[in-house]
Amino acid sequence: MAGVITVSMVIILLMGFGIIDFRIGDGRDARRNGEIEGEAKADDFEFRPGRVELIDNPPSEAEYTSGEIENITVYDRYNEAVVNISTEVVGYNWFLEPVPREGSSGSGSIIDSRGYILTNNHVVENAYKVNLTLADGVVFEGEVVGSDPENDLAVIHFDPKGHPLTTIPFGNSSNLRVGQKVLAIGNPFAFERTLTTGIISGLGRPLRNDKGIVIRDLIQTDASINPGNSGGPLLNARGELIGVNTMIYTPSGGSVGIGFAVPADTALRVVPDLIEYGFVQRGWVDIDPVQLFPSLVRYAGLPISKGVLVSRVIEGGNAEEAGIRGGSPNQAVRSGNTVIYLGGDIIIGIDESPVTSLGDMYAALERSRPGDVVEVRLVRGRREITVDIELSARSGSSD
């Protein structure tokens, strides 16, 4: 349990809430007075959370335990900031005509009073229409303004048209502890704004998603997370968003007490880029990469079986400038619809991160920015070499 709050402490806490206003940058500078700032963006993007209202009937210590009061207070204050998200996607009928079909559903957190919602990328992926149901049943149509498959995050915007909004403030996920109490609010199995509680079961968990990309530093929790919770907030005992619920481990399709959330600090770092550019600006090596696979390794007689082959270096790019070698046009082979040029360097590491797959390469560069300098470890022929390279800007997202 994060701590025991007496009635007087609850009253002081509630009286202390007014209009919360904070700026968002890359999440590296967090102030303890409720204001979170980072590097200013081009237009100095600023979140404008709505007013947090006092609850009408605060729970009494005479009726509830201190732990119950904590849960009730957080839910009463922030459940209306959680929205139900449903999508429509384009399918095709027997005549290959495009037809609308029901897509995925999930949850989202209102993080700005102008109508910005934070959710999972997989909740809105491939959606052409996004419907948002607020706590009072009012439905708005939203637009996905940015997505980050590498962290399974996305930002939706809708026009509230003067509709009053409750927003969830960001907390700090860098000082979390195993055993700390957490609360999750979401819409599991279409049961709207369901509250579950638990503890942080583990920190820094790496998991590979269905795109083969490793999402690092996930928060593991035993708070029940079920289908429909995806994209909803994981909160601390103060009601601050410390994570975005993203996936569960389950052999049955339901919660077995192993859920994962993307840390709030990651969201703080990527959300401004998602809003400003539609994707996260990350560093990149200007090559055509090909992940090694067994038949290619056997055919080419490569000395290693795992890594990323440099099929081609982009002319005038940073890889060419750093001396990285691509394959030869005289050694072209075809795999499916892809032409691969053999004889190039094989990337096996970036800085301290081993690279055994293309997903590892994306993960190694996930936190980088254009202009950063990284050390790339290569296998050339049968010897290992290293080169320093100044990263360029990756265009768009990894998918």
What does this structure look like?
- This protein is an alpha+beta fold.
- It has 2 domains: about 270 residues, Thrombin, subunit H; about 110 residues, Pdz3 Domain (Roll), CATH 2.30.42.
- The chain starts with 6 loop residues before the first helix and ends in a 6-residue tail after the last strand.
- It is about 15% helix and about 35% strand.
- It contains 7 helices and 24 strands.
Q: Can you tell me the CATH architecture of the largest domain?
A: Beta Barrel
Helix and strand content put the structural class at alpha+beta
Strand order of the largest sheet: 3-4-5-8-7-6
And the CATH topology of the largest domain? Thrombin, subunit H
- Average pLDDT confidence is 83
Task: Indicate the CATH class of the largest domain.
Answer: Mainly Beta
Inertia-based shape: elongated
How many individual helices?
Answer: 7
Measured distance between first and last alpha carbons: 40 Å
Please tell me the total number of domains: 2
The low-pLDDT segments are 1-45
**Which percent band covers the strand fraction?**
35-45%
Largest sheet: 6 strands, antiparallel, barrel
Q: Please report the total strand number as a whole number.
A: 24
Q: What radius of gyration results from the CA coordinates? A: 24 Å
